[in-house]
Amino acid sequence: MLYYLFEYLDKTMDIPGTGVFQYITFRSALALILSLMISTIYGKKIITFLRNQQVGETVRELGLEGQTQKAGTPTMGGLIIIIATLIPVILLTKLNNIYIILLIVTTLWMGTIGFIDDYIKIFKKDKQGLKGIFKVIGQVGLGLIVGSVLYFNPGVTIRERSNTPITFNQTQSTISQAPTGSKSTVTTIPFMKNNELDYAKIIEWTGDGYENWAWLVFIPIVIFIITAVSNGANLTDGIDGLAAGTSAISVLALGIFTFVSGNLILSSYLNIMYIPNSGEMTVFISAFVGALIGFLWYNSYPASVFMGDTGSLTIGGIIAVLAISVRKEMLLPVLCGIFFAENLSVILQVSYFKYTKNRYGEGKRIFLMSPLHHHYQKKGYHESKIVTRFWIVAILLAIVSIVTLKMR
Questions:
Q1: Contact 79, 114 (CB under 8 A)
Q2: Which end of the chain is less crowded, N or C, counting CB atoms within 10 A of the terminal residue's CB?
Q3: Residues pairing with 74 in the sheet
């Protein structure tokens, strides 16, 4: 909204300084500051409101040190993240940008699913919350929307790598060989020499015109990614500061990808895929990072508030949609390696337990407890040490992910 106001003032009244709102970098910095202020200043008021409404965490007895002390801690703190993200986004982004629209829908959609789940746990006294099948239906529904929009919407285009460099004429303020975007299902595969994959090629064997049916491959992949990443974020939210901290690191790395991929000059210089209009997502990411860091102020050990499924499902959904939009979904196992490890630990634990029980009559476990962070708690590590080390791993994985811009 402010973007359009200052654009109007700049064009009609030529007021000095109003033109800065056209720059993504300026609006991103402003979004970061604004979201950080909202989450830290008003976050305390939201926590007080949740406490007064007795929206407290019900802790299951898992035999973990310090677990009982967490009982009654306000949950549904994901509302802080959602509010602190959406207000700067509404004020500072181009609201007609298709990527921004998708991200706003994702935030509200996944936030609603998480809110319903938390509401059932707290007010209906049902520890299981929303039934798993309904969560999956919600995630699949969002995947259908995101996949369909990214595939069919004419505003979603790319310009593939070109051997001819793009040059900028500073005197005339023009760009030579301005590219025209084209519809494509091409994505990026990290660490490969020819690091691009066209989803349409998967059904090339069907014969001529296979490109018209590429959505049959693309949309299910989008659904799978959104479901997997949102569940991974949900599993990671088990100890104070873990999900918020690792998510902020991963999202910050995605911000670099969106800024570079949405900038014609930088994408040409790095010889990577140029995605028109995707740079606007950098403003959303800045607001999101600010909200996560502000929430971390209250969620760090010992936590004053938990994000609940309201926050964790929303975080996972946003990260998934960001990665898919910027054609970096194949990088998610590295970039979101913590989520991947948490997911994998649960899958391995459950699968091995069932296998050994069927084969030997007694179930055995690979980990002392899953998800993975609970394994280290069982080994005697303090949760603040586990969180800090997971953050360090997340930073290393983010650096490796960023390096893939040129390492192929």
A1: no
A2: N
A3: 56
Give pLDDT tens digits for 187-245.
Answer: 988 877 777 888 988 888 888 888 888 999 999 999 999 999 999 999 999 899 999 99
Q: What angle do CA 237, 119, 373 make, to 5 degrees?
A: 15
**Assigned token pair, 313:** 């499902």
C-alpha distance from residue 86 to each of 74, 79, 100 (Å):
22, 11, 11
Amino acid, single-letter form, for residue 283: V
* C-alpha distances out from residue 47 to 80, 196, 218, Å: 9, 46, 41
What is the phi-psi region of residue 173: left when phi exceeds 0, alpha when psi lies from -120 to 50, beta otherwise? Answer: left
Size of the chain in residues? 408
H or E, element range at 395:
helix 383-403
The continuous run of DSSP H or E covering 379 comes out as none
CA proximity to 260, closest of 251, 252, 269, 250: 269
SS (HEC) of 131-152: CHHHHHHHHHHHHHHHHHHHHH
Distance CA 139, CA 12 (A): 45
Give the whole-angstrom CA distance, residue 219 versus residue 236.
26
Please check whether residue 27 is in contact with residue 279, taking contact to mean a CB–CB distance below 8 angstroms. no
Residue by residue, DSSP assigns 288-328 as HHHHHHHHHHHHSSSPS---HHHHHHHHHHHHHHHHHHTT-
**How far apart, in whole angstroms, are the C-alpha atoms of residue 38 and residue 34?**
6
- C-alpha span between 66 and 104 (Å, rounded): 37
The amino acid at residue 80 is I
pTM: 0.92
Q: Running DSSP on this structure, what letter comes out for residue 187? A: E
